[in-house]
Amino acid sequence: MICKHFGSCGSCGLYDLSYPEQLQRKEERVSSLLAPFYTEELEVFDSPASHYRARSEFRIWHEGDRCDYAMGNIEKKGAVTIAECPKVIEPIEKRMWKLLEKINASPEVLKQRLFSVEFLATTTDECLITMLYHRRLDDVWASEARLLEAELNCKIMGRSRKQKVILSDEFVTEKLEIDGRTFTYVQYESGFTQPNPVVNVKMIEWAITQAKKVGHGDFLESYCGLGNFTLPLSHYFEKVLATEISKRSIHAALENCKLNGIDNITFTRLASEEMTEALNGVREFSRLKGIDLKSYNFSTVLVDPPRAGLDEGTIKLISNIDNIIYISCNPETLARDLETLTLTHEVKEAAMYDQFPHTEHVESGVFLVRK
Which InterPro entries match (predicted)? Predict the structure, then answer.
């Protein structure tokens, strides 16, 4: 990827390395962290070098009579205005610059006190644009934004303090080909989604490869989100219990389950710590009414925690399950958690997924089997 803003825009910090060099650097870092637990070669899943990011947000920088998109400066001092962003997928790229033209042509309505624009797009060319304002939005704004929806063939939302204006929908619908099946995912504007669709598919298929090695029993998932892993992996287990703390994500997960005609998953809103308490019989939750936890015989668990990694209780809980798939967005906390998990389990497979080219960020995964 070549971008005229390399060296000034803080969004891409590894601009001075070729993409193969970036991958090697990340592989060496993850391999070094996992070396005490895994001595084989990592499986590396690369990304398209450009047009890979399906969600992005840009500040709106007002100067004189016009505004521009802006990102944080690489030196973390102020912002830099941008005229291109080759990392966003094409459904975003082909709309974002036309949108900016329309904003600048509407100083009294679309441009007035606009401070940020967020894009959420799919590989099937759906795009949801959220425009954020420091003012209350009225019918005049809604009328002009509807015209813009039609012109850009997209969905537009407006947000301001304690106000959300939905003109058509607040979601996009993604379709991904995963392990020979087509999966449909409703993705909401305010919910978490994997940012790189190509690498996301590779990551899910890696997890499926591990699940196929088990081939029996029930499946437990913590931090399930909208069902990104849950739906494809459900085909390889008898029953599935998936937990997530976000109400919005659980709503999307239930919707996605219906869209895909899957009937062996139970989604429930529990934090990771609450899941541990429920499965250990420490607490009863009204949210689990009608769910017989004792009926599950978990052979496999998948965890995909935030950067802080797993809490002590969750580590203790999953240590009692034969097979663990651990997807991590922070290899440092993954290595920390493996210090405990490898007391009972052995790392059989390890992988690295490059969701964020041109940055230091890297995702990784391990498959552990009870000793």
Answer: MeTrfase_TrmA_AS, SAM-dependent_MTases_sf, TrmA_MeTrfase, U5_MeTrfase_fam
